[in-house]
Here is the input.
Amino acid sequence: MFALVDAVAFYASAEKVFDPSIRKRPVVVLTNNDGCVCAVSPEARKLNVPKFEPYFKLRNFLQQHQVVIRSSNYELYADLSSRMMSVIGRFCDNQYIYSIDESFLQFTGFQSIINDWYAYGQEIRLAVWRETKLPVGVGFGITPTLSKAANHAAKKLAGYNGVAVIDDDHSANEILAKMSVTDVWGIGGRLGKKLNMMHIHTALDLKKQNPKHMRKQFSVVVERTVEELNGQVCLSWDDVKQAKQEIFSTRSFGERVTNIHDLKAALSTHCSIVAKKLRQQGSMTKRLVVFAHSSQHEGNFYKRSFLYDFPVPTSDSRVLANAVNEILPHIFAPGVRFYKAGIGAIELVSEQYMQGDLFSPTLDNKKLMGSIDSINKMFGKGTIKLASEQQTKTWEMKRAFLSPRYTTRWSDIPKIQC
Here is the structure.
C-alpha cells in the first residue's frame, strides 16, 4: 500500500501556525515581489479568489472582504516543511519527499499491523496537526497514482473528511468517476485536451483504456499511468533523489538596479545560494553562467550573459563570488535599469569522484564552508554572509507583507506574556 500526504494550501496554512488570530480568516500569499497570488486558504477559496492573478488587480476586492495578505516567507515554509515531513516519516518504512508539502509513503513492513487504513490516515493527520498545526490530507492507494487520486478525493471531494482509501477496484472506480482526467497525476492540460477529443473526460474513462493503445497514441508514461489506475505498480522512486545536473539561483529585483555595487551584491547572494546547494548534494561546478537584463516591457531592452570556466571544480562561495567579480564589468552598463539577474552552475561533477590536478590546486576551503553552513543552520539563514552581499539591500525583492521568521530568527521567536 502507498500513501500521499500533503498540506492543505501549505503556504497559507503555514502563515496561520504562529498567528492564531488569523486561523479562521481568509489568507492569501503572494509571489516574489508581491506580484501575484500563489496560495489561497480554504476560507479565501470560498470567496473565489483566483490563484496567479496579479495582486494589484485584486487589491480592492481583498480589502473589501478583509482578506489577510502575506508575502512569501520562504524561511518559515522550509522549516515547517521539515518538521511536517519528520512527523509523517514516523508512520511508514519508506518515505519519498516529493515537494515542499507532499510526501509519498510506502508501508511494506506495516501492512500486517494496520487493520484500518482510514483510521490510520486520521492518526497521521492528528499527529501532524498536534505537532505542527498544519492541516493535511491523506490518500491511500495500491499504486502511487491511485494514492495521488485518493489524496485528491480526501481534500476536494465531499464525504471523505481528509482521508480517502483506494484498496480495490470498486473504491477506485467510485473516486475516479468523480475526477477530471486532468486531475490524474501526470496528465497535464495539453494532454487532457487531446484525451477529451477521444471522449476521455474522467479518470475512470482513462482507466478503461487499453494501455498498449495509449502507448501508441501518446507515450510509455501514459501507458504506465493507465496500468497504475488499474492497480498495477509501474512507477517507483529512488531511495535517494538523483543529484541535479544544473543549479540556478535567479530573482527579479524589488526595485530597478542601476549601479554596479547593487548588482554585485545581488549576484554575490546568488553565488552563496548556488554554492550551498552544490555542497548539500555533494557536487562541484566546472562552469558558471552569469546573466542580468532589464525589463522587456521597457524600451531599449538590454541583456548580457557570460560563461566562466573554473580550472578546478568548486563549491566554495568565495570562489564563485570572485568569478562574478571578474565578469561583472562585462555585464554592467551605465544607464540600464536592471530588472533581473542570476547565476547558474551548469556543468556539475560529483565531489566524491572528483580527481584533483597537481598543477592547479583547489582554492576551496571545505572546513570554512562547512562551518558557515553549520552556523547558518543553527542560528538562521544569512547569519554569516560574504562581505560583498552586505553592500546594499536595495536590490532585494519586495515583501511588504512579510510575517516574522518565527523559527529561524532569534529576534522573531514568538513571545508569550503571562
About this structure: The mean pLDDT is 88. Residues 182 and 188 are 6 Å apart (CA to CA). The first helix runs from residue 10 to 17.
